[in-house]
From TrEMBL:
GO BP terms: fatty acid metabolic process
Domain AMP-binding enzyme C-terminal, residue spans: 422-491
Family statement: Belongs to the ATP-dependent AMP-binding enzyme family.
Pfam family, one: AMP-binding_C
Organism of derivation: Methanoculleus taiwanensis
Entry superkingdom: Archaea
The protein's name in its UniProt record: Acyl-CoA synthetase
Gene3D superfamilies with a match to the protein in the record: 3.30.300.30, N-terminal domain of ligase-like (3.40.50.12780)
Amino acid sequence: MPNCTTFLDVNACNRSKTALIIPSRGEEYSTARLLDQVNRIGNGLHRIGIEAGDRVCIYLDSSPEYLISYFALWRIGCVAVPTNRVYREAELLYAVRDAGATAIITDTPGSVTAGKIRKEAPALREVIAVGGGEGATAWADLQGSSPYLRPAHCRFDELCQIQYTSGTTGRPKGAMLTHGNWIAAMDAEREVLGLTGDDTYLGIYPMGHVGVSWGISALRAGGSYVVMERFDLEPYLDLAERYRATVLAGMPPVIHSLLRSPPGTEKRLASARLMISGGGPLVPAVWRPFHERFGIPVVNAYGLSETIVVGTGTAIRPEHYTTADEFRSVGTPVGFSEVRIVDENTPERELSPHEIGEIALRGPSVAAGYWQMPEETASVFLPEGWFLTGDIGYLDESGMLFITDRKKDMIVMSGWKIYPTEVENVLMEHPGVRDVAVFGCNDEHRGEVPVAAVVPAEGGLTPEMIVTYAKEQLAGYKVPRKILIVDKLPRVNGWKLMRKVLREQYCPPRP
Ligand code: ATP
């Protein structure tokens, strides 16, 4: 039976190779140095009483310490509880308390030791401070431990992570991920990107999100992972050029801003053979011109926290680029994943090609359920292994998947179903629109009505211009009843759209 997994199991054959690059700190880690640190931290955690099965929260910015924490915890049989550094106290407290974490690894120990978290999370015994701090165990102390670690014995079906969902539609749920889920996900990602030891991956996804898996997969394939803490166009281009990145992490807003970049930018991405996009819909108005201008195929990947992204999910790959229509699809299943469309009210009933229903996924990276949420678990993790994603879509006759929207975002106006993504795709085609979000506001007479928040590309765009355009392109009931011109849309880490924030901000309270 294999031990707890880390990327190192496969990669160990080339120990002197540069694995991790952190340009903001001018640091590089060879595989050997990374393994040394992982083992020391693992032993150090043991020394201060962290035991196999303990849940340990990680509250750091994307950094080597984040990855080292993941790997060390996995190797000693603990459960990593990654959180996002942008979390405020209440959000962090929710994760620490819900997971019953016994320790937290952070670079802001004061926010934990002095604040509410210490008082209101009774299971929390240890605060481990990267950079040190009063009342905390210093990371440097743990680094002084032995570099020889005997990994814990653990099974594929054993829990190694509680991954809180982004919470874009409600209270975050803790997806329970196992070692087996992770191993399958790394294999699936290697397959979909064709990763080898020659690849250099430029990563921008926050390490507290399952999107970090792309970087871990690159390491496991023997490649290098360049860490960018957050996206900014100029430094991104700089890093892609300097490190000759072959695989670029992207997301719809990143691809959009590359598209608006000055002529000549193409040369700076000359080493790139693939761009990843995921986490939200990539509209054809952005995708197609990006492909035409840069010639870099976008791997539009679809998955969730509950499936470790494409571990059990789908992706469009360069070989799918045959017809223009595919600029709307998220491709076909990856690895051992299976996809089917089921009736929203009777999930046992599978629908035929082109019939719209709920997307269900099955495969080796589907989480074991939600942490301490038996009812939510039973409602979406079905006994035959199918996981109901809450996304709406259809398959075409060749098995390509198309997402129309998320169940919870669907707007029902006087019985008419309106899919916000469809309306957004149309409005994005307007040359004056830089970004757009469509959401449903409650309405006394019609139940709900569609509202659009629009970020203009330049001054002069008026709500009337948008309405006129929408009326030419869309059936009357889909035309937003109200247009708001805004500076910015609420996105988690500049990425996932938070429609619920827009609803709270702009809709009248529900009666
Ligand atoms: P919560 O469930 O708490 O609201 P979340 O679902 O936003 O959080 P994630 O697991 O990070 O958290 O996001 C998964 C969702 O992101 C999917 O269900 C889907 O709606 C959307 N998504 C992911 N990839 C794509 C893609 N390539 N195209 C369109 N939508 C995508």
